[in-house]
Write a structure and sequence with these properties.
This protein is mainly alpha-helical. The chain is 66% helix and 9% strand. It contains seven helices and six strands. Strands 1-2 form a two-stranded antiparallel ribbon. A hairpin with a 6-residue loop joins β1 and β2. The radius of gyration is 18 Å and the shape is globular. The two termini are 20 Å apart.
Length: 169
């Protein structure tokens, strides 16, 4: 199977842009704070407008993470789709769907960060990066950087998948 480097580079850039927009501009404060909640590690959320506090467990954590990953993936689809169209790239629908499924699934797996049980924390601990994962000092947040590297890696694979049968118009 042949992949055109120019199309791959364009789709990778579009995927990364969609990722950043979805993660940092579209994700709401509630999802960002509650997506890792569990019954063992509940999260107390204070509404920034009303100042009302609510406590959330597993069910709300799962819903918040799902909501975030749906809006994140939809944002990627919109940005990558509009960008590809503007650049004259025709992406095969099945390849686009597979790429978005990879992005959605791996994003959910990483963002469901239940303390002590989250996938990234487990991987970091098993690979000797547990201390870095927990680092939140010296202007560095280890969990954020490992999360970002995880997403970059999977989005690169997703962009490669998206180039399957892609052509220019």
């Amino acid at each position: 199977m042949t992949h055109r480097p120019d199309i791959f580079a364009a789709l990778l850039g579009l995927t990364r842009a969609g990722s950043k927009i979805g993660d940092f501009w579209v994700q709401d404060d509630f999802c960002a704070r509650v997506k890792g909640a569990s019954d063992d590690h509940p999260v107390t959320y204070q509404d920034p407008d009303t100042k009302k506090e609510t406590t959330h467990g597993t069910a709300d954590g799962l819903k918040a993470c799902l909501h975030h990953c749906l809006t994140y993936t939809a944002t990627q689809a919109i940005v990558a789709g509009a960008g590809a169209r503007a650049l004259g790239i025709k992406v095969h629908p099945a390849a686009a769907a597979a790429a978005l499924a990879i992005s959605f699934g791996t994003h959910y797996a990483a963002d469901r960060r239940v303390p002590g049980k989250g996938l990234l924390e487990k991987i970091a601990t098993k690979t000797g990066k547990g201390s870095f994962y927990k680092l939140a000092d010296y202007g560095i947040n280890g969990a954020f950087h490992l999360d970002s590297a995880w997403h970059h890696g999977w989005e690169t694979l997703a962009a490669l998948v998206a180039t399957t049968k892609a052509t220019t118009r």
